[in-house]
Amino acid sequence: MTRPSGSSRPSGTEHGEARPPRGADAPDDRRPEDQRPARSRRRRGEPLAASWSPERAPAAPAPRSRRGALVAIGVVLLALTGFVVVRALAPSAETTDVRSPAAAAEQGPVVGEAPLGGDYAGVSIPTAELPAGGDFPVSGAGTWRVVPGTTPQVGVGRVYTYTVEIEDGATLAEGDGAFATAVDATLDDPRSWAGTGQIALRRVDATSGVVPDFRISLTSQLTTRAQCGYQIRYEASCWKSDIGRVLINGSRWVRGAAAFEGQLGLYRQYAINHEVGHVFRNQHVPCPAAGELAPVMMQQSFGVSNDYLAQLTDSNPQGIQIPRDGKVCRPNAWPNPTGR
């Protein structure tokens, strides 16, 4: 099943590289001229070598090896002097992230995005497992209360009436009215059963004086298991013809199904349309062609891969033998997806 909704990778630090300020000249020695060391009394710009005096004979040139050593020592001293000056003039404050963008990218983000949707063709992928998520109604009283409200008729053909109900003791965070609104909006949609041009639907309540043709009932996890059976050890909803009740499993209503990759609203529409489809005597079907929208009567709560569904239902038939043909569909909530 929700991708929670885009982040971008940092392209680098926000600020450019800090440049050292222009340094000031070294402070002057304020001592009197006659109290300064001899080397300090030299004039600015004179070489670092001993002072030149015309009265002295010129010194003999140093041997070549000695001259090279002196040059090397001078280069080292100049390099060290430059390093000290730069360090002295550089600002003491540093940016928060002192790594280069390339180094940060190599180490990776502190936290990354979750992987995108998976390939459900492999039979080992447990898409029938209930996804993680919020709290759902675990148990209830086994009786249901009718949510007040009615709708005008939608569609043409034989009219089917329904009520919306909530199991006593089962509580939804969004309240009873939100469940009823979701049911009505799904069944009133032209992509739903009434949009096929073969039947019509109308919601009634306890004040209507009408015995409904079926009841759409939000039901706790354990009551659903007791009513629908639990041979396949995964959460499911069902149509109970003997009591005229579509049982929508509260755990699935809150958590959805893995094949829907977090699209909880789409899954809820599927759950309503799939179970109401059983009211109209539709049976389970497999994925007809790889990559196509799944038929709404495919058991998408368990997955959209024929191979995976076959693995689950071989020992617990669900009305049809699912072929192991490698076909994988895309999740779909509607019996009439085009709305025509």
Automatic annotation (TrEMBL):
Biased composition (Polar residues): 1-11
Compositional bias ranges of the Basic and acidic residues kind: 12-37
UniProt entry keywords in alphabetical sequence: Membrane, Transmembrane, Transmembrane helix
InterPro entries per record: DUF3152
SUPFAM superfamilies, per the entry: Metalloproteases ('zincins'), catalytic domain
Pfam family, one: DUF3152
Region of interest: Disordered: 1-65
TM region positions: 69-90
Annotated Low complexity bias: 49-65
Protein origin, superkingdom: Bacteria
Domain (DUF3152) ranges: 130-337
Protein name: DUF3152 domain-containing protein
Species whose genome carries this gene: Actinomycetospora atypica
Native organism taxonomy: Bacteria, Bacillati, Actinomycetota, Actinomycetes, Pseudonocardiales
